[in-house]
Amino acid sequence: MTTATTGPAAKAAGAGKAKPATMAQALQRAMRDAMAEDPTVHVMGEDVGTLGGVFRVTDGLAKEFGEDRCTDTPLAEAGILGAAVGMAMYGLRPVVEMQFDAFAYPAFEQLISHVAKMRNRTRGAMPMPIVIRVPYGGGIGGVEHHSDSSEAYYTATPGLHVVTPATVEDAYGLLRAAIASDDPVVFLEPKRLYWSKSDWSPEAPAPVEPIGKAVVRRRGTGATLITYGPSLPVCLEAAEAAQAEGWDLEVVDLRSLVPFDEETVCASVRRTGRAVVVHESAGFAGPGAEIVARVTERCFHHLEAPVLRVAGFDIPYPPPMLERHHLPGVDRVLDAVARLQWEAQS
Amino acid sequence: MDSLQQRSSTVQEPPGAVPAYRPTPPPAWQPRTDHAPLLPDAEPLRVLGTDAAADADPALLLRLYAELIRGRRYNTQATALTKQGRLAVYPSTTGQEACEIAAAMALEERDWLFPSYRDTLAAVARGLDPVQALTLLRGDWHTGYDPHEYRIAPLCTPLATQLPHAVGLAHAARLKGDDVVALAMVGDGGTSEGDFHEALNFAAVWKAPVVFFVQNNGFAISVPLAKQTAAPSLAHKAVGYGMPGRLVDGNDAVAVHQVLTEAVARARRGGGPTLVEAVTYRIDAHTNADDATRYRAAGEVETWRAHDPILLIERELTERGLLDEDTRSAAAEAAETMAADLRERMNADPVLDPMDLFSHVYAEQTAQLREQAAQLRAELDAEGEA
Ligand SMILES: Cc1ncc(C[n+]2csc(CCOP(=O)(O)OP(=O)(O)O)c2C)c(N)n1
C-alpha cells in the first residue's frame, strides 16, 4: 500500500535528494529529533529499547539516547501510563508506546481518570504533556486483539487529543506536534500503513503545524469523502475509480479527530453538497456518527443528499481470514457514493 | 492556636519540671501467617539426575517421555506450518514442553485449564484436537473449540487477563460444592500486569482452589527477567499475598509434574491457591515475526539446549534400563502420526462462512446487525461466492 507523495516535504527536498522512507521511519525520526532538541522527552514502553519496538518504530533510540531516555518497562500498561503521569507532573514529556490497540485497555483507568482530567482537576496547574502512541486498526492479518480500531473510546473522552496520520509526511509532522503539545495526545498509528513509503526526506521535513488541521488530499466537485488514517488510501483509490464513472470526488483527510477541523470539512461539503464519512472502526456510535451530525447541523442547506457513513460492521474485530469482509473497501465506498442520488444531480 | 502557645511556654520551663514522657505501647501486631512455609526453596526443585529420581514411578516416566516426544513434534510441525503460511503466527514452546505436558497431566477431567496464547501444547496434551487448538493462530476463528467440552478456557492473548477468570471459576465451583481446581498459566512478563496481582490476592483471600503456573522462560518478547522484576524469584511474590510459592526446574518433567500435582491436590482439599514458578527457557524466538538475535546471544540458547527436557528424561530412562528401541520407536511413531494428521488437515483450506461474522455477536441479532448481514449477503451474492 502506498500513500500520496505530494507533501510539501517531498517538494522541499527536491526530486534528486529525497529517498523513499516508510511511515515507521518517519515516526522514529520524529521521536529522535524531539529527543535531541528537548532533554525532557522520554520514550518508554514494552520492547521499545533493545528490540526497537515490535514494529521497529523506536529503533536505535535507546542506543543513541541511553536506556534512561528510551526505556524497556515491565510489562504493565497501567503502570507505564501511570508512571508517565508522575513523570509529567515532574516536568518530563513522556512518549509512551502501547504495543497494540487492544493492549492499551489495561491503561484506560489512568488514561481516563488522570491523563485526560489532570489539567481540569488542577485548574491548569498540572498539564499532562504525554503522547500515547497506539498502533491501531486491521488489515495486517493479526490474530485476536491485534486489530482494534479504538478511536471512539478516545474521542469520547474530553481532555484528550486524538490524532492519526495517513501519510509519511504527516507521521513526522503530527508526531512532532504531538510531542510539543502541552496536552495529552493519543497518537493512533495505522499499522497497515507502517510500511507505506514516500519520497519524504528527513533532511527537509515539512514545517510542523499545530495539530487540529484537516487537509484536502484530492480536489473534486461531486462529493466529499471524509476520512482519516488507514482509510485514506482506500478513499483515494475509490476517488480514482469513481473518475471512470464520471464522479469527481474530493477527499478530506482529518488527520486529527480531536480537535475536529470543522472549517475545512464544512467548506468542502458546502462546495460539493454531498458527503460520505469513511472509517474502519464500528459505525454505531463511531466517529462517523459525530461527524455526520456536525456536518448536517452546519451544512444542512447545502446538502443535496443525506450524509452517509461507510464503516466497519458493528462486530468484534473478526479473525484474519474474514477481515476483508469487514473492512470497508473501495467497493463499499463507491456504493455509498452511488447512493448519494447521483443521477438526480447530473 | 491556644494549645500551641501553651506548649511553647512549657518548653521554657526547667527540664526537671516536665513529667517523663510515657509512650503508649502500640497495639500488638502479629503477622497473619507464618511466612516461612510460604517461601519458595532457594533452588528450583529437581528430580531427574538426582537421587530422588530412583523413586519415580517407571510408568510415569515412560508416559512423560512419550508425551514430551509428541509435544516436541507438535511444536516443530506447527512451526513448519507457519513457514508454509498455513498459520498466521505460532508462539512455540520448544524447550518448554515439560511445563506444558505436566500442566495437562496434573489435572483431573473435571478441572479447568486457563492457558495463555502460548499454551496450545498444554491444551493439546489435555486432549484438545490439535487442529482446533490452532484455529486462533490460523485465523479462521478466535476460539476453535467449545471451552466447556474440554474444560479449557479460550487461549488468552491479552496477558494475565485470564487469571482472575480462573479465580472466579474455581470460586464458583467451590460455592456449588464441586471439587474442581483451576490451573492458570502465565509467562514471566505477564506477572507484571495488574491482573496477575489482583488474581493472586483474590485467590488467597477467597482460598480459591487455583494453581497459578508461571513459565519463566527468560524473556517477555525482548525484555529479560531482570528488567521485569527485582524480586528474588517470581515464586517469592506468593508470600505477599499469603499463599505458598514453589520453585521448580521447568525442564524437569518429573519435578514439574510433582509440584503441580501437589499444588492441585492442596487446592482440591481446601488448602487454597499456590504460585508455582517453573524456570525454563524459550528456545525459539517469541514468534516467527520476532528477531531474537537482536536481544540475546546464541551461546545462551546452546546452554539451554544441553538442559533439554527430552534429554533429561531420556538420560534417566536409559540409566534405569527403561528405554529400549521399541519404546523409542513407538513414541516416535505416535508423534509422527499426530504430525502427519495435523499437516494434512491444516493443509486443507478451512471452509468459512463470512455470514458467521454476525452469528455470535449477541444471543439475538440486533436490527442493525440484521441490516449489515443483508448487506454482506448481497455483496457475496454479487461476487458469486455465496
Ligand atoms: C496486555 C498485553 N500487553 C502486551 C501484549 C503483547 N505481548 C504479547 S506476548 C508478550 C510477551 C509475553 O511475555 P511472557 O509473559 O513472558 O510470556 P512468553 O511469551 O514468554 O510465554 C507481549 C508483550 C499482550 N499480549 N497483552
UniProtKB/TrEMBL annotation, chain A:
Transketolase-like pyrimidine-binding domain location: 21-196
Keywords annotated in UniProt: Oxidoreductase
Ribonucleoprotein in keyword set: no
Transmembrane parts of this sequence: none
InterPro entries per the UniProt record, alphabetical: THDP-binding, Transketo_C/PFOR_II, Transketolase-like_Pyr-bd, Transketolase_C
GO biological processes: branched-chain amino acid catabolic process; response to nutrient
Chain coiled-coil ranges: none
Cofactor(s) named in the record: thiamine diphosphate
GO terms of molecular function: branched-chain 2-oxo acid dehydrogenase activity; magnesium ion binding
Entry EC number(s): 1.2.4.4
Cross-referenced Gene3D superfamilies: 3.40.50.920, 3.40.50.970
PANTHER family: 2-OXOISOVALERATE DEHYDROGENASE SUBUNIT BETA, MITOCHONDRIAL (PTHR42980:SF1), 2-OXOISOVALERATE DEHYDROGENASE SUBUNIT BETA-RELATED (PTHR42980)
Protein known as: 3-methyl-2-oxobutanoate dehydrogenase (2-methylpropanoyl-transferring)
TrEMBL record, chain B:
Bias (Polar residues) ranges: 1-12
Span of domain Dehydrogenase E1 component: 78-351
Keywords in alphabetical order: Oxidoreductase, Pyruvate, Thiamine pyrophosphate
GO molecular function annotations of the record: magnesium ion binding; oxidoreductase activity, acting on the aldehyde or oxo group of donors, disulfide as acceptor
Region (Disordered): 1-38
Coiled-coil annotated spans: none
InterPro entries, alphabetized: Alpha-ketoacid_DH_E1_comp (IPR050771), DH_E1 (IPR001017), PdhA/BkdA (IPR017596), THDP-binding (IPR029061)
Gene Ontology annotations of biological process type: branched-chain amino acid catabolic process
Top-level lineage group: Bacteria
Necessary cofactors: thiamine diphosphate
Pfam families listed in its UniProt record: E1_dh
NCBIfam families referenced in this protein's UniProt entry, alphabetically: PDH_E1_alph_x
Name of the protein in question: Pyruvate dehydrogenase (Acetyl-transferring) E1 component subunit alpha
Natural source organism: Streptomyces venezuelae
The encoding gene: pdhA
